[in-house]
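Appendix B. Extra example for self-study. Work through it before the problem class; the solution is given directly after the inputs so you can check yourself.
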Amino acid sequence: MFFRIIPKREIPELVRGLASQFHVIGPVAKDGSFVYAPLSAPAELRLDYDTTLLPAKEWFFPSSETLMRFTVADNVVIDDSVDETKRVLFGLHPCDVNSLLLMDNVFLGDNPDPYYKARRDNTLIVGVSCMPNEHCFCNAWGTDETHWGFDIFLSDIGEDYYASIRSVMGAELVDRYVAGRPITDDDTAAFQRRTAEFKAAFTNDVDTSQLPVLLDAKFDSDIWEKLGEKCLACGACSMVCPTCYCFDVHDVLEADQLTGCRVRTWDSCQFKEFAEVAHGHNFRDTRASRVKYRYYHKQWGYLSKFERVLCVGCGRCTRACKAQINPPRVVRALQTGLVD
Ligand code: SF4
Ligand code: SF4
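Solution. Structure tokens for the complete assembly:
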């Protein structure tokens, strides 16, 4: 990794340059909130955003996508092409950069998902530093920093960005589109000061120590029933989560009944039908069992396989859940035995 100082005033020029080669997607303001969307002009980019409604995963694992088209009569696949659009995702916070690394463990493992892989291979990541809002608890998982998973990372040090450059392509693009300058010791000191301010700004303290032990010990606790009584089974927590990856696949026939397509859509373990199998048996037919499953999967099952929890502390589920069920509250319930 090497470093450059990029004045903030040069960011529009960088975005313009990138847009001449790539589809550039970044956080933009929409209806009082922020979303990742294609930029039609550099001025639309809002690097001062706090969080986006939906996470960056939708650009790699869309909420609905056609996997292939086929004919019915002779059962032949006629199109299973992947999306190789050259993209730049500009402005991901550390939690969202880290969330993609967690998704990679699933989609790029022993049997890589070709659709996800094609988008990942063709997308550059430009990260940007942030300040926590009241829902953020990425510091509890160590996902408030990222040292991998980006091509360029811009850390705000006032008038300039302290740019960490991780890939050859990132270096070439910085060289091509911005003047910048080498870092000095003063710049690194400013970076360290800014990092300390960031660390001190968290207000949502979540004590995650010994969480897997607590989960094991509280498997039969009545907190799960109490949380289940509150849950609306709406699935919003999964939909907004940057690390939830469950999906359903179904075939859709065209009106002519001669051709069709296979479609993949996001699914949620909080939906009643999620664990229903043939003959109608449902492995998790209560809301309590589904809320419990979500937390055991994220904080225990994934951890046992990949040595990381499947949460980056982005706080999106805290905002989305009408029943106020969220990781900080569940962790507190595990610690106290009470649902506050
Ligand atoms: S579980 Fe909630 S806080 Fe954790 S990554 Fe998902 S949406 Fe963010
Ligand atoms: S935990 Fe909240 S967001 Fe998730 S399904 Fe239940 S009510 Fe909906």
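Self-check: Residues 287-306 form the longest helix (20 residues). If your reasoning did not lead you there, revisit section 3.
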